[in-house]
Amino acid sequence: MEQGPRDTLPLASRLLLGAIAGVAATVAMTAAMSRMHKRLPPAEQYPLPPREIIERTLPRLEKDDAIQDAATAAHHLYGAAAGALIAASAPEIGVKRGALAGVGIWAASYFGWVPAARILEPAHRHPPRRNALMIAAHLVWGAVTALAIRELADARATALRAGPLDDAAPKN
Questions:
Q1: Contact predicate 28/144, CB 8 Å
Q2: For residues 17 and 102, is the Cβ–Cβ distance under 8 A?
Q3: Which of 19, 31, 101, 115 has a CB 3.0–4.6 Å from the CB of 80, allowing a cystine?
Q4: pLDDT in tens, 15-57
Q5: What is the distance between the alpha carbons of residues 72 and 147, in angstroms, rounded to a whole number?
């Protein structure tokens, strides 16, 4: 199998690009979550897991703004960490495999470490529509992460490569 441009990147570069891609994908994911959340039946429109996790793990936060900020930050940091791991282990990941990786992260989180840490009930105990929302959001996250890794690596190899600094100001 021929190596692609992302296969040859140093590990530190793959981690960086994956983290950036994971944050960008988390923005897209969060937008999708927000839009789908509004379409849930009123009884299921309670806060989604990023907020629930923060309220369960940081109970000292009392102001709603602080909880919202912590949930937003934690959600994006988790996306960055997951993106970095994907880029480190599969730098040439395609969109379909990226989407599947997103669902894998959902399953590992909501059937794995989150209930094991006694933060939330396992996903099979959540309402089906909320699970569908979260699975769809993770499909978005995984696909966007894969696309962003590719685009960032390609930009690194073209627009950010070494070359003459023709626009540079003259040195004194």
A1: yes
A2: no
A3: 19
A4: 999 999 999 999 999 999 999 999 999 999 999 999 999 999 9
A5: 22
